Amino acid sequence: xxxxxxxxxxxxxxxxxxxxxxxxxxxxxxxxxxxxxxxxxxxxxxxxxxxxxxxxxxxxxxxxxxxxxxxxxxxxxxxxxxxxxxxxxxxxxxxxxxxxxxxxxxxxxxxxxxxxxxxxxxxxxxxxxxxxxxxxxxxxxxxxxxxxxxxxxxxxxxxxxxxxxxxxxxxxxxxxxxxxxxxxxxxxxxxxxxxxxxxxxxxxxxxxxxxxxxxxxxxxxxxxxxxxxxxxxxxxxxxxxxxxxxxxxxxxxx
Length: 254
Prior knowledge:
Shape: globular
Distance between the termini: 69 Å
Radius of gyration: 23 Å
Helix content: 25-40%
Largest sheet: 5 strands, antiparallel
Order of helices and strands: EEEEEEHHEEEEHHEEH
């Protein structure tokens, strides 16, 4: 399974995903594997796919073969049509090639989220598992573990991310993906993969940057605990435990 989250901040776009793939062994047993799910295409597009890994590989090949249809000097709508055309061709190819070798064998399905830079600005585009597509103004979430994707999106809604800095959006995206991975018993897993798209182009964050985000999120969690303690009338996150049998420093000496 996969969870993908895209956020639009005041300074650019953030795209984040988990790093776990699931494969079926002979006999139907599912196993977990590490997977690179975030892809940079050219200098101006980041995307992540959900579904069959083979489909994601073929989508990237199709994008490479159709560079002229998704160039950064084109407008958003033109690039969106080009992306969907490439993805849709792979989706249809998968359905047409389906052979039900066992009663449980699923059709290879694929969907994805694309964050990019066009001549008229930044865009978030979703190609869904059923072949449809749309632009999202502020955020988008998807994944084969769709409930987890909705959880990730709803966890950041109240932050008004569109008015925040890019750094703020990266921290929110990291925590949303981390939370969904921790909530999953099997389907999605850490580490978080993340990239950004700004007016200067697209880039993928390195391990050190991801580690810094993790540390910031841990500080945020501690601050939440402290703030709740204050809100409940305490001095901080750790409440003082009073031993009623202890006479205290001011007790008279005998």
